[in-house]
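Practice problem: predict the structure.
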Amino acid sequence: MATITKRNNSYEIRVSCGYDLSGKQVRVSKTWTPPPNLTQKQTEKELARQVVLFEEQVRTGQFVSNNIKFETLAKQWLQQVELEGNLKPLTINKYKQMQERTYKAIGHLKITEINRIHIQRFINSLTKDGVNQLTKGGLSTKSQKGYLGFVSNVMNYAIDCNIIIDNPCHNVHTIKTESRERVVFTLEESQLFLEKLEQAEPRYKAMFTLALYSGFRHGELLGLKWDDIDFDTCVITINRIALYTKDKGHFFGEPKTKSSQRSLKLPQVILDMLAEYKKQQAVNRLALGDRWQNNSLVFPNDFGAIMHQSISRRWLQEFCRKNDLPVVTVHGLRHANASLLISSGADVKTVSSTLGHSQTSTTLDIYAHSFALKQAEASQAVAELLTSCKRA
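Answer:
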């Protein structure tokens, strides 16, 4: 039963929501202020309606106290979206990794107290030297947007819970930071890389040769199964990615976007290499006997299970160092593939489709410089042609 207390021009509505572990009754409250144009009778009628709505919100768990702090609500929101399954596990995992910095900055503040200045100050703090433990600089603009997105989602949840009316993240700006120079193989370095790979362990030789030829993401390579490869048509299809989170361990997920679920026709020489590697994997499988986990993975760990990305990442870095090559990541090989496609004259739609980007604008944003160089070369060729015609 709700308790109503009139306070000046407003009404405080208090409702019981059960008992805590000590047996003490827990009560929550909200304040309702009637619009000034209502008559006394209309006010009483609307107040009764507000009481019923509030009791229903408390009963169904939709109401959260106005005194709740950001950290408490954020954890509640994360738990809710995880149960509902509306966000991908990898996205939830990223938000969980953002908790420590975010809570340190604004976690102690009440949701109703947080304004645009608090959030802008937090985003600005992410750009200071030393925040990024890897580069010793500030976080990239992309990372800042990730943190801002996390805070904004919690604030939208606060709106849904009727705690606040507007999202204070509106008009908060990320800071443009100097991005790290991307390490990408040139054509000559790519050729040398493939040459050196000839002497490498069959599994890594096949994995990184395929990475350079296809532009597949790291998770796509590790999630690839033999059934995804059609040796007759030389077509490889991406149906899943291999993922890892601290909570769930290793598991398979859907490709990053709908466009990421794609099929790519590759040269016969790549399929021949994969066929040879498959024979070698069969030998290893028989040698391990019952210890082998038969997941039909193309690039598993030593026992047939999903390989952790750090294993293949470290192998690639060490391989590059030993062979005096620029130290690239698997994503660096993906960039090299895109650069080689653009250099060969492929249009933006072809490059976008090969890489599995959801929009061509994404491809243009990432490889704007490469496309600009190719366009400049084309313009120069046209200029030379016109000049030669004029002289003739």
